[in-house]
Amino acid sequence: MQEYTLREMMAVAAARQIRDGDIVFCGTGISMLAAMAAKHISAPDSVIFFETGAVDSKLEEVPMAVGDPRVMFWTSVNGSLADSFAFMQNPHTGRRVVGIMGAAQIDRYGNLNSTVIGDYGSPKVRFSGSGGACDVASFVNRTIIFMQHEKRKFVPEVDYLTSPGWLDGPDGRNSAGLPPGGPATVITNMAIMGFDKTTREMVLNGIYPGITPKQILDNMGFSVDVAGAREVSPPSAEELRILREVCDPDRLILG
Amino acid sequence: MQEYTLREMMAVAAARQIRDGDIVFCGTGISMLAAMAAKHISAPDSVIFFETGAVDSKLEEVPMAVGDPRVMFWTSVNGSLADSFAFMQNPHTGRRVVGIMGAAQIDRYGNLNSTVIGDYGSPKVRFSGSGGACDVASFVNRTIIFMQHEKRKFVPEVDYLTSPGWLDGPDGRNSAGLPPGGPATVITNMAIMGFDKTTREMVLNGIYPGITPKQILDNMGFSVDVAGAREVSPPSAEELRILREVCDPDRLILG
Amino acid sequence: MDMRTEKVMTLEAAIGKFVCDGAHLSIGGFTVNRNPMAAVYEIIRQGIKHLHLYAHSNGQGVDELIGGGCVANLEIAYGGSGRFAPTCIRFRKAVEHGRIRIEDYSNYQMTLRFLAGAMGVPFLPTRSGLGSSIVHRWGFSGPEREADDRLPDRKLCVIDNPFGDWGEAHKVVLVPAINPDVTIIHVQKADPAGTARIDGLTFADVEQAKAAQHVIVTCEELVPTDALRKNPDLNRIPFFCVDAVVHVPFGAYPTACYRYYDYDPAYLNDYREMALDDDRHKDYLSRFVHGVADHQSFLELQGKERLDKIRADERTGYAVGLDRR
Amino acid sequence: MDMRTEKVMTLEAAIGKFVCDGAHLSIGGFTVNRNPMAAVYEIIRQGIKHLHLYAHSNGQGVDELIGGGCVANLEIAYGGSGRFAPTCIRFRKAVEHGRIRIEDYSNYQMTLRFLAGAMGVPFLPTRSGLGSSIVHRWGFSGPEREADDRLPDRKLCVIDNPFGDWGEAHKVVLVPAINPDVTIIHVQKADPAGTARIDGLTFADVEQAKAAQHVIVTCEELVPTDALRKNPDLNRIPFFCVDAVVHVPFGAYPTACYRYYDYDPAYLNDYREMALDDDRHKDYLSRFVHGVADHQSFLELQGKERLDKIRADERTGYAVGLDRR
């Protein structure tokens, strides 16, 4: 079997979640790589689009930011922020959108923090803030979340709720006034988590080769049901080739 | 003195109201002609724009409608309805806009009806409806209104208030929630009317050569103060030349 | 919306598939420009009835749909075709005779209503219409609205500004979103996947398309995808919003299509005269609409000479010196 | 806004005239793209202080203004520059040390706030942020807001949908309009009257410009009016919105300008390293900002070789194969 990095495993795991016909909202970094890989592997008719307004960019080189000029090349339409978020908020188009994003903290309901650690008024650590993350998490049908598997990141309660997940459970989004979609998958450097259809609580779905459920739970600030977890198949040679040779030959994002 | 038609007099009277630096919102027909004439006579740095989204059109031929392809030629920007009305509603740009429009009925406060005669639910006569007229009348700094001078058109109360003028008097617009601008001038086939700065009621400002105040009052459904009226100077040879030779050589609008 | 990249079909098939009796429909264009006339005539030909039609100032297309007997309800800002018909003829007759039900808005209000639909919000605010009859006179009553789940419960709402006098406004009108079942627009260029390019003013076409559940694009030229991707800054509608692409040269005739052809003054003047008389209008319909198989045959009936007269000049985008009396 | 047709001036004059201490300012661009960097550096050079800055995700420009000590208050959605600084360095330090006051929104909320300003309405609605801390945690308190007539009395409002569940939404967030004193954008082409053409994505530049009382446009190329009027479909901002036009080639450097040049990875990586250390950042400012007379001198300091490396390829609009590590 070919060797691979955990970052490559994460990108491949996310790419596998993308289906033909999905409109893929991409953030910066590894999420872009996952979307690019999916286009070349399993979902050639998925559409990559960016909050900056670019629809179906032809990514000959991997962009370093969603405002990178590389996202503007050979698109269907070059629009604006106003246009792109409208596609996500609009139920006709929004229900086809899969959002891929990361965060600094996540709780059991998939609520995300990318704003501050500590008190909002005098934070210990300041992060970038929402950007489009809150918008995407509010609007789209399903989101895929990249996380590093660390106790300080999987927390019982996020310090600041930047991007709404399932909020406080099954009726959370509806009672807040949000559309029905929400977090579908959390992809970490150890595992793939999902959310229980009834309770909306995080559950362990997949474990990377060589990792144990105990290791996963030891690195989380809350416990999850691990009963349904299966081993994730490692990246295939073809998946790795696409990722390494087509998507990110300079390893700008793969590192 | 050169002969002229009343329609020519009306177009010239309106053109004289336009000042350099005005942004002129144009409706269909004679208002377009007035705006074109002003550009060539007294206000070369006025800007003609259309609700359809065309800014500073180069009108080599007179358009027959605000959606005429002639308004799209050599503009600063070709936008949309959403763009053009935003320019009027935005106070920074809106306060520079002069709107020119017509109507089927007008009352003493410059409220306009271009929707129905009779009951709204089962009208005796149906007109085009607001189009952009209600929007322009709501938003812009001052409006110039073209009317035929007839008793059935100058009415005590409009059958349907399509486009707000001064509503019911000095505080009408403010208490309805409208911006402070409003009707400035009514140009008819007999006279030029204004509005009293205090009462916001219509007053007679100017009378065309050969017309008497009595004729004017006889053709209105309400009385106006005629004390301040002066005779309007007839179109000059140069004004007529511009109108006839430059603006509408085929007399598409002049008739 | 539709994710396929090959959506080309005939106009007959597209109308048959997406426009049914009672559908909530909006059409693009403005007064005498870029109305999707080929689609309008096809709708009449297919005998589609009871349409709920949304229009800002679509002019000729709206008047023909009404004249063709397709329309039951109309939400509209303006029924006019410029100097050719300051008030559209069949529209006027239908309203005066109570043959259609109508509700009035302003152009900006209708634009905002489509924009709200496109944005996926239930309403948008404006200051337009405060104090006017547009706010106070409803075409569809409260009980009628509550009985019809395709209509919002209120025509519009006037509310106090919840931010005090922020924006120098103490009140605003909220106008409800429109989400048509189908929007039909005519554009200059489209590719087989539905990416659409509009030359010149877009009117409210883009908002109307994005607000709709289904979109039919008719186009002057059907071009390869790469031809449009070379300069995406000129494209206005992304392909995933579009369900059907139909290649119909002169598809906006007798209205104009910027850079391709002008409106046809002779046709529009003739139409006005025929529309004014019920019998002559019946003859008009049987000759020009029901009497032809499709838009191509309709154009042949007009004759090449007539179409040549209105061809757009390359510099200006319209027919310079066209006899427009 | 300004109705004159000749608005060309130097950057020094434009900043001096329209950007004063305490001004409410917004700048265009997004993360590492089309930030009006020449203007940003000039603002720092002129020692302008206490700015109230509005940003969605303007990235590098915002970070440099903060680092330059110009900013007192910040309303923002995102302080990051893509892979070069997932969180902007001086932004992060300033917030963590309480040197600026900050209030958070989302990108769409900020976009809608500029759009509301552009449209002349007090607010716009969205479903974004319902249930999030963005709604509940205010950067500026109620009493602070009421004491400052440049701020709306509320950060935002959550209201029940007055149209019931029309649009499938029973609640919405209303976000208040922003009307900056001045917006500065960098574009590819402008004419002396201020008509501006933007190639590629417009981000929120158009809304930011139309929302502002005054607009400064810096441009790569100053072109004759006729050059832009030939195809107005590509122009984004009409001249009457613009107060000052400044010709500044490489005016977005070190951020990118589509079809002209790419971002400079070397500069942005060096900046990150220098920004991380307070002393080195001081040196950076004195060498690259205060140590040069203007943007031209700043560019000469970078050297021609560096600028040549990032020149955009004609086909793609960016620097193909650029070393971006």
Structural write-up:
The complex is a heterotetramer, with 2 copies of chain A (255 residues) and 2 copies of chain C (325 residues). Chain A has 255 residues and is an alpha/beta fold. Chain A has a single domain, classed as Glutaconate Coenzyme A-transferase (3-Layer(aba) Sandwich). Chain A has helices at residues 6-16, 30-40, 81-89, 91-94, 133-139, 172-176, 213-218, 237-247, and strands at residues 23-26, 47-49, 54-55, 77-78, 97-102, 105-106, 112-113, 116-118, 123-126, 142-146, 182-187, 191-195, 202-207, 230-231. In chain A, α1 packs across α2 (30-40) and α2 (30-40) crosses α8. Chain A is globular. Chain C has 2 domains: 3-120 and 178-309, Glutaconate Coenzyme A-transferase (3-Layer(aba) Sandwich); 123-176, Defensin A-like (2-Layer Sandwich). In chain C, the strands form 2 sheets. In chain C, strands 1, 2, 3, 4, 8, 9, 10, 11 and 12 form a 9-stranded mixed beta sheet that branches. In chain C, strands 5-7-6 form a 3-stranded antiparallel beta sheet, with helices on one face. By secondary structure, chain C is an alpha/beta fold. In chain C, α3 links the parallel β2 (51-54) and β3 (71-76). Classes of the chains: A alpha/beta (255), C alpha/beta (325). At the B-C interface, α3, β9, α5 and α6 of B face α4 and α5 of C.
Short description:
The complex is a heterotetramer, with 2 copies of chain A (255 residues) and 2 copies of chain C (325 residues). By secondary structure, chain A is an alpha/beta fold.
Work out the helicity level of chain A.
25-40%
CATH class of chain A, anyone?
Alpha Beta
* Alpha-beta content class of chain A: alpha/beta
CATH fold title of chain A: Glutaconate Coenzyme A-transferase
Which series of helices and strands of chain C comes N to C?
HEHEHEHEHEHHEEEEHEHEEHHHH
Q: Count the strands of chain A? A: 14
Major beta-sheet overview of chain C: 9 strands, mixed
Q: How far is the N terminus from the C terminus of chain C?
A: 42 Å
Question: In terms of structural class, how would the helical and strand content of chain C be classed?
Answer: alpha/beta
As a whole number of angstroms, the C-alpha radius of gyration of chain A is 17 Å
